[in-house]
Amino acid sequence: MTPRATLITGIGELVTNDPAVGDGSALGVLSGAAIVAAEGRIAWLGAAADAPAADERTDLAGRAVIPGFVDSHAHLVFAGDRAAEFAARMSGTPYDGGGIATTVAATRAASDGELRTLLTARVAELRAQGTTTVEIKSGYGLSVQDEVRALRLAGEVTAETTFLGAHVVPAGVDRDAYLHLVTGEMLTACAPLARWIDVFCEPASPHAFDGDEARAVLTAGAAAGLGLRVHGNQLSAGPGVRLAVELGAGSVDHCTYLTGSDVDALAAGDTVATLLPGVEFSTRSPYPDARRLLDAGVTVALATDCNPGTCYSSSMPFVIALGVRELRMTPAEALWAATAGGAAALRRADVGVLRVGARADLAVLDAPSYLHLAYRPGVPIARALTV
Ligand SMILES: N=CN[C@@H](CCC(=O)O)C(=O)O
Ligand SMILES: [Zn+2]
């Protein structure tokens, strides 16, 4: 049986992220274009006048279309509320990772059904704002059974699952014993449910892991067949970035405090620098220096880091607005980072780009141009369209 095909017309502006088409820019912007999608993939893309016949037709009445956002960093499996901690930070209390224990307690106490309900609502919230691919970390279980449960639930909604047993050392647990567990029994139980392993490498936090500990976690994860990701350089210019690059991680995330050698290492390696400006917004902290990274030729991604402690926002358009307004990225750089950049951070070639064979994961904007993502901050103009 031939697959049913859908023709999408009336596209005001089409951002493909394919530099081989359109205006010659990295965004590969086309006007007067149409798309045919079949079985979740792009079957045809070109001038609307040349579009082939299809079984169904969707007319977007002049709206802009972009690749669906690729949110390459999110912590969505959790219960509980830390609004009071947010309020304290707005009055000057600094963030040090200590509040993670509050979420761990609430998450362990929640039933599978409660966690699933919270998770699916958060995924729906992301999609309603244009995100079509999301990476989801464990890290609020911190016991073998609770980390396994978090990854099992995450795997119900995404293929991009990340084992973050090394988020913090749980309260009352010996550091060395916990490291032994995370790199041993917990890793063995979690690896079959995860694509990635991550570690919160932050010597400035008494709860997180130093460079040697992070290296042990990542090396064990790689030996178990997992790809590597690192929470690095969030609170200080620690060893996270250099470790991530040395070990060939897909991405090092936060990158708020960088030395010159960190930037040089990122520019020479193939690890993506993922910036999470919603965190600096929500913790009233200095923003990372995106221009320094971009000007050095580093591949930069933007993601939400949606989590209950440092940024309880699932909105990629909000992150793009921060990228433009606060990180001084151009609107084009910010959109690329939130789509193709996220795909690079997840080592995916089938998302974050619209070309024949790629996933037909689109975001439709109630606007004539992608510029409106930063031009109209806080206005819900983006939504996911998977055909
Ligand atoms: N920094 C470590 N992990 C999260 C925050 C987790 C929390 O505070 O609950 C982050 O990416 O910012
Ligand atoms: Zn995070």
TrEMBL record:
EC number in record: 3.5.2.7
Source organism (scientific name): Jatrophihabitans cynanchi
Binding, Fe(3+): 73, 75, 231, 305
Domain Amidohydrolase-related stretches: 65-367
Signal peptide positions on this chain: none
Keywords associated with the record: Cytoplasm, Histidine metabolism, Hydrolase, Iron, Metal-binding, Zinc
Protein name per UniProt: Imidazolonepropionase
One family name in Pfam for this protein: Amidohydro_1
Cofactor binding annotation: Binds 1 zinc or iron ion per subunit.
Residues given in the record as 4-imidazolone-5-propanoate binding sites: 82, 140, 167, 234, 310
GO MF term list: imidazolonepropionase activity
Catalytic reactions of this protein: 4-imidazolone-5-propanoate + H2O = N-formimidoyl-L-glutamate
Primary residence: cytoplasm
Lineage top rank: taxon: Bacteria
Record pathway: Amino-acid degradation; L-histidine degradation into L-glutamate; N-formimidoyl-L-glutamate from L-histidine: step 3/3
